[in-house]
Design brief:
Layout lengths: L6 H6 L5 E3 L9 H9 L4 E4 L5 H14 L4 E6 L9 H14 L18 H11 L3 E5 L5 H9 L3 E6 L2 H10 L3 E5 L5 E2 L16 H9 L6 E4 L5 H9 L4 E4 L1 H4 L8 H9 L5 E4 L7 E4 L2 H5 L9 H5 L1 H9 L23 H16 L1
Parallel strand pairs: 1-9, 2-3, 3-4, 4-5, 5-6, 6-8, 8-9
Antiparallel strand pairs: 7-11, 10-11
């Protein structure tokens, strides 16, 4: 018999099997993380782009707002080979042309590859955060040992059964099965094999991963209400991870025009693109995606180069040049409301279906 009390709830010490996705870039404010955790789910700080001192301050703020478990998400990805000068120049000229109306100058476009991972991870160890979640790969073996020795739980986002098997072998306590309909960056480990990320839908992926691992499986992608939660549980998942719906919450730290685009968009409006960061990600189609014609650089060089465009778009309230990450399950449920109401609505609907 299906139930809301799953082995994932026991593992994470949460009331409901719902995880708020760790979306990097400022969306997951301490208020959002704490609100989700206080409502019975697991809030997650998306810390991949944050410096260690900022992570430390955010964790302190979260702990002021909640005494419940929470997670911090990091990227485990090797930086690509530094692009050749002519490749950088091609991208720079493309960005200057696109950014003309945003007053972008040549000096605004930087090609940085700063790697904060060691410092970021050390903060999580020092702070003994309850849960560490990773995207794009697994923690190195020595770091898995450090985290386990401190009683910390590790979850890994995967996009294939093969990745899930590897994650369990390396020491993950649970895997997040991220389907191709999920918003944001594809967590595929090896892009050499899957240029745009593994293209497997969530509800095809979950049962196949469930059959291959012994640890809890968490469904991500196309999940935003009680119906999809129950469907995921029926397929063998122990819980769900939700991103897009929480982006529209009152506590989410994204631009207001981004929230409006989420509410006004539907299942036909998203595409997979590399033009913002150099890694494949699902977002709402806009003028920047349509207009960028050069070959994107490897991550993180493309991400660094496009930062000036994204910042200028934010200052000008212009969603056409923002990275509007979103999943395919947009309509009609995405709306502005407190994060706690989102949790409550999902649980009420799921329990009604189960009864």
């Amino acid at each position: 018999m299906l139930t809301m009390s799953t082995d994932l709830c026991d593992l994470l010490k949460i009331k409901y099997p719902i995880i708020q996705a760790g979306m990097a870039g400022g969306a997951t404010t301490p208020a959002l993380v704490a609100s989700v955790s206080n409502a019975g789910g697991l809030g997650t700080l998306g810390a991949a782009y944050m410096k260690s001192e900022d992570i430390k301050m955010a964790i302190a703020e979260i702990r002021k707002l909640t005494d419940q478990p929470f997670a911090v998400n990091l990227f485990c990805v090797e930086h690509g080979i530094e692009p050749k000068q002519n490749e950088k120049e091609a991208v720079k000229q493309e960005l200057l042309n696109i950014g003309r109306d945003l007053s972008i100058s040549e000096s605004d476009i930087q090609f940085n590859a700063a790697d904060y991972f060691e410092d970021q991870f050390n903060v999580l160890i020092e702070e003994k955060v309850p849960v560490i979640s990773t995207a794009f790969g697994t923690l190195p073996e020595d770091k898995v040992i450090l985290a386990k020795d401190r009683g910390m739980t590790i979850t890994v986002m995967v996009t294939t059964a093969e990745e899930a098997i590897l994650a369990e072998k390396i020491g993950a306590d649970a895997v997040v099965a991220q389907g191709s309909d999920a918003g944001g960056h594809r967590s595929t480990f090896e892009l050499s094999r899957h240029k745009n990320g593994a293209d497997i839908g969530t509800f095809s992926l979950v049962p196949q991963i469930k059959d291959q691992v012994t640890i809890p499986v968490i469904a991500a992608g196309g999940v935003n209400d009680g119906r999809s939660l129950v469907a995921a549980l029926a397929l063998g998942a122990s819980g769900v991870q939700i991103g897009t719906r929480f982006l529209s919450s009152d506590e989410a730290g994204i631009h207001q025009v981004y929230k409006e685009k989420l509410i006004d968009s539907n299942e036909e409006d998203t595409v997979i693109t590399k033009v913002f960061s150099g890694r494949p990600a699902r977002g709402i189609l806009n003028q920047f995606i349509k207009g960028f014609k050069a070959e994107p650089l490897a991550y993180p060089y493309q991400n660094s180069a496009t930062k000036s465009i994204r910042n200028a778009a934010s200052k000008n309230d212009n969603p056409e040049y923002m990275s509007l990450w979103a999943g395919q399950n947009l309509r009609p449920i995405v709306k502005t409301q407190p994060a706690s109401d989102i949790i409550n609505e999902i649980i009420v609907q799921a329990e009604y279906i189960l009864k």
